[in-house]
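__Protein archive entry__

___
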Amino acid sequence: MRNFKTRNFVSLFIAWTGLVSIISGIILYFAPAGRVAFWVDWHFWGLTKKQWQATHTVSSFFLMIFIIWHLILNWKVFVNYMKDKAKKISFTVPELSSSILIAIVLTVMSIYSIPPVSYIMDFGDYLTASWETKTTSPIIPHAERLTLEEFCAKINLPVERAIKRLTAYNVKNVSADKTLEEIAKKNNLAPKDIADILNFQKQFKETSPIPVEENKNNEYDTDKTSQSAVRGRYGQAKGQPSNFNGLMYIGKMTLKEFCEKTGIDILKAKSLLKSRGFGDVDENAVLRDIARENGLMPRELGEMIYSLKETDTDKGGTK
């Protein structure tokens, strides 16, 4: 085994950390702004923006240290680059003077946003802004840092109802003093997903021709107003309302009637609801009342139960 060569080690380490720093820098160049990245739980190659930032910072930090070490090890060679024929350091050496001049010009152009250097930053800003849309922007700045109680206060939703809604949507480890980010992380969701479940009134207001404050009876039971924020997680494609075998105004039906008309096993339906925190539901209870007691719209409750039928259908199709 040959002896360990420090110069070789330093040069190779600079190469690898430099590569990591370049790659992470490129990714951060086009990554979304923090308010969007943290809200939608943005990932690239399996890493969050915060992880990419940490990777870039740490690799750049050690790259700086090892570049300084490399200069120390090769100081004589480095100084020779700046010497003229008389073996004296001189700014008349073209490589020295031109490298310093270009470095100064690029720095000044960067500071004062002078084209064409400014185009690099402008393009980066364009890529960053392209991630931000109506659906990806947080409804409240850095809402993921708010506790559930604080968030509910801002959207005028009783925290007790919020906890019931989240439990009904199978969200675990919910408490009023936890932040949206903490709750989302425990459930492998984005903070936006939690907010979408809670901010249901805004969703219905945007998709229904009937204002929320006027829509107090059964109007939400029509297909026109069915919009569940996280429907895809419970057996129903997001943004595509279930037709419940053509049934309408399901809020007036009892649980038993709904299950009979949709061909769903009542015992499976009651078991599902119990697992979602509904307790022992009376099969003769009206869906509208069951939903309201648990912070849901009747349509949302119907979709939750109807997912059992869709799951059975999928299983039958794979046999």
Remarks:
- Strands lie at 43-44, 47-48.
- Residues 209-318 form one domain.
- The chain is about 55% helix and 0% strand.
- The mean pLDDT is 83.
